[in-house]
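Dear H.,

Thanks for agreeing to be a second pair of eyes. The structure we're designing against is below in token form, covering all 502 positions.
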């Protein structure tokens, strides 16, 4: 997969017919080409061709920042300087939200694109109908090689570039290496991520002693598996199950924040295919951090805090796409997949890759590909699958069997850690764990099941009662209800329950 829809030396770009450039953009486009997008590209081409005359460097249209899920309109790499251009067609004003957008792109390059860590990054917002702009070049307060966004009209693009080039010593940057650069958070971002939860542990957050103990023991077990895997150069996958609301996501976030060690390169990332969840989690942590810093008398911006949060909470689809583009292992040795049972099966993954990414004949399910991505590490890796029961709701969601069969059939050198609850009816596994244990190293760990719901912390047996009722285990439900001390109608041992029809 290409990181940009179009790339070319600037000298080639300015001499090409605009129609050929548009055709290459359309060919690289992953989506149906709309007339508005076509017209926007043509306008950008017509603006940039005269503005870039005589310059040497590379131009990239629709550049995808690794794992961030963003595509920048245009990126210029000139004399070791990264110019990040965001166009707003038909706009005569520079809106606050647009300035923050291009500023965010600049931060993403500095924080997450490995080859850009040490380069000067210049975000430029271009309102195509603006009468005036600004030539002010101001370095940001927290990144000495990142400029604050520059507001341009089309006529100011070249003067801004010339002014930046005159202020910087030219340097040689391999455009090909820069283009193929991987996702790589800077150490300062990792340190910031570690501090996000420095004042709390998972047991501090729970309102129930039983729930706190359960969260603590599950987290400790995963910590142990990670440490053992690293020391023994072993690859491990563990499945965390739990009743609804038990805190599986909380455990995943806690592991992600705790395993961020620059010295041992033991980085981790929390991944979810639930876009709104990722957005909500990021926003909640950003606001909490900003509020905490304000209470300590320190002023920080949401953008600078957001960079820390982005390093360990990401969309699984962006992570997957990066694995397709980049043949190297991911930055992290530890990945935590939220709602892992909702990963796509082979048919859905193949259909999506052909329709949206232009990859024909893709022959791996999403779980198989994600495991293969982590398997690129030559020494050790850990995958943590956070599994909800009965939550496969969309077409093509594979369930837990896709993970287990991928390990069994393609990665038997991986070690599997599960609780015996993974064979419960709500997880819908058709795999024989006895037969699986004959093919791979499998270990049962009771601590990998969260049995107490944080939502019903005053009724710790409620989830178990609901499960037994759904399983139509009338006698077990009756016994549990009796133990609760609530008087209920008597059940006759000879009665068998049947599902309702209609």
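And this is the sequence the design step returned. I haven't edited it by hand at all.
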């Amino acid at each position: 997969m290409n990181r940009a829809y179009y790339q070319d030396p600037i000298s080639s770009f300015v001499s090409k017919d605009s129609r050929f450039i548009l055709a290459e953009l359309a060919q690289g486009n992953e989506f149906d080409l709309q007339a508005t997008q076509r017209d926007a590209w043509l306008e950008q081409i017509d603006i940039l061709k005269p503005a870039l005359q005589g310059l040497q460097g590379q131009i990239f249209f629709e550049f995808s920042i690794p794992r961030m899920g963003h595509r920048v309109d245009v990126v210029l790499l000139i004399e070791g300087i990264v110019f990040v251009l965001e166009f707003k067609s038909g706009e005569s004003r520079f809106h606050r939200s647009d300035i923050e957008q291009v500023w965010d792109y600049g931060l993403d390059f500095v924080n997450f694109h490995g080859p850009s860590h040490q380069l000067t990054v210049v975000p430029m917002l271009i309102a195509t109908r603006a009468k005036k702009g600004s030539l002010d070049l101001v370095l940001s307060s927290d990144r000495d090689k990142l400029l604050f966004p520059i507001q341009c009209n089309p006529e100011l693009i070249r003067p801004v570039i010339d002014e930046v080039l005159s202020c910087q010593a030219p340097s040689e940057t391999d455009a090909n290496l820069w283009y193929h650069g991987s996702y790589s958070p800077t150490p300062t971002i990792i340190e910031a991520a570690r501090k996000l939860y420095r004042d709390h542990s998972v047991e501090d957050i729970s309102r129930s002693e039983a729930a706190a103990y359960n969260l603590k023991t599950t987290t400790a077990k995963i910590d142990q598996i990670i440490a053992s895997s690293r020391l023994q150069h072993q690859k491990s996958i563990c499945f965390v199950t739990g009743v609804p609301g038990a805190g599986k996501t909380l455990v995943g976030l806690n592991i992600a924040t705790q395993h961020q060690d620059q010295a041992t390169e033991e980085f981790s990332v929390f991944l979810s295919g639930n876009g709104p969840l990722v957005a909500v989690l990021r926003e909640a942590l950003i606001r909490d951090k900003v509020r905490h810093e304000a209470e300590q008398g320190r002023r920080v911006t949401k953008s600078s805090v957001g960079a820390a949060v982005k390093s360990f909470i990401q969309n699984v689809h962006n992570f997957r796409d990066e694995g397709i583009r980049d043949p190297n292992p991911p930055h992290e040795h530890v990945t935590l997949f939220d709602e892992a049972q909702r990963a796509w099966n082979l048919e859905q993954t193949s259909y999506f890759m052909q329709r949206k990414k232009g990859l024909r004949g893709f022959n791996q399910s999403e779980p198989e590909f994600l495991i293969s991505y982590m398997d690129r590490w030559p020494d050790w890796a850990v995958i943590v699958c956070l599994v909800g029961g009965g939550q496969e709701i969309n077409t093509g969601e594979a369930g837990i069997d896709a993970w287990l069969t991928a390990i069994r059939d393609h990665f038997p050198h991986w070690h599997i850690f599960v609780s015996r609850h993974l064979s419960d009816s709500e997880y819908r596994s058709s795999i024989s764990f006895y037969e699986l244990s004959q093919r791979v190293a499998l270990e049962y760990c009771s601590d990998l099941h969260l049995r107490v719901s944080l939502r019903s912390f005053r009724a710790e047996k409620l989830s178990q009662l609901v499960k037994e009722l759904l399983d139509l285990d009338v006698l077990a439900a009756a016994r549990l209800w009796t133990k609760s001390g609530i008087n209920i109608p008597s059940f006759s041992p000879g009665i068998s329950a049947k599902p309702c029809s209609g």
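Two observations from my side: The CA atoms of residues 69 and 108 lie 11 Å apart. Confidence is low (pLDDT under 50) at residues 204-208, 487-502.

Warmly,
E.
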